[in-house]
Amino acid sequence: MKTRYARIVEDKFIVSKDAIEDSITVKEMEDKVVIGYLMRDESPMDPLEDMDGQGRLYRWPTDHWTGDEEKYREAVKADVALILNCYVHSGFYWYVSGHAHAYCQHEGWDTVNNAGVWVPDAVLKEMLAAIPDRADRHAKAVEYCEQALEMYNAYVNGDVYGWGIGIYDRDGKVLEENSCYGYYGCKDAVKEMEEEVERTVKSMEIQETVPV
Q1: What are 97-111's pLDDT values in tens digits?
Q2: Is 22 helix (H, G, I), strand (E, B) or coil?
Q3: Using CA atoms, how far apart are residues 14 and 131, in angstroms rounded to an integer?
Q4: Are 120 and 48 within 8 A, CB to CB?
């Protein structure tokens, strides 16, 4: 990992300038220190454009975003097509129209109805085709769509993260670094970073017990 140093932890340990301050976790060992932290992912993938198995979104053109009216109208005709609304208030929060969601309480206020249409991609079409009952197939499509929108909402609102971990000696010298990106939503990123810190510490403790 090429680290852009700027932030100093405990007056000695230098971490990436991109480290989110309140995410920094410090684990001290006898002769080393392990520090983990979160960073924003500056180049995340669009889950509804760049990933398979998430479906595709076709937006109706508005003042808030670009869209394609022709593609929207074509997508609505698909065998499986879910109309989406978007709550626009300090961000963009897409959800399936007509299905209970936290954003539904704001419908009529800062909400763009019929803002887009979601359709399954080739991967999801194959999975849905295996469900014979139409109602069950629709319910599963809604489930897939809501899972994809959770990632998409994180994407459009800049809520995508990576974690970094550094191993230091007691003098603050960097001994080893590692990082991983692509976590949609802070909760999963924090959980994975903390678990990786613990794995790193345990691995180092085991190594210290092995006779040289």
Answers
A1: 988 666 555 556 788
A2: helix
A3: 54
A4: no
pLDDT digits (tens, 9 = 90+) for 117-127: 999 999 999 99
Q: In whole angstroms, what is the distance from residue 151 CA to residue 159 CA? A: 9
Strand partners of residue 202: none
Q: Which two tokens stand for residue 108?
A: 């009529």
Extents of the domains making up the chain? 5-44+165-209, 56-156
List, in sequence order, every beta strand (DSSP E) within the chain. 5-9, 13-16, 25-28, 32-40, 56-59, 82-88, 92-96, 111-119, 160-169, 174-184
Residue type, 71: K
Rounded to whole angstroms, the Cα distance separating 190 from 197 reads 11
Q: Tokens in use for 118?
A: 């979601």
**In the chain, alpha helices (H):** 69-76, 122-129, 134-156, 186-209
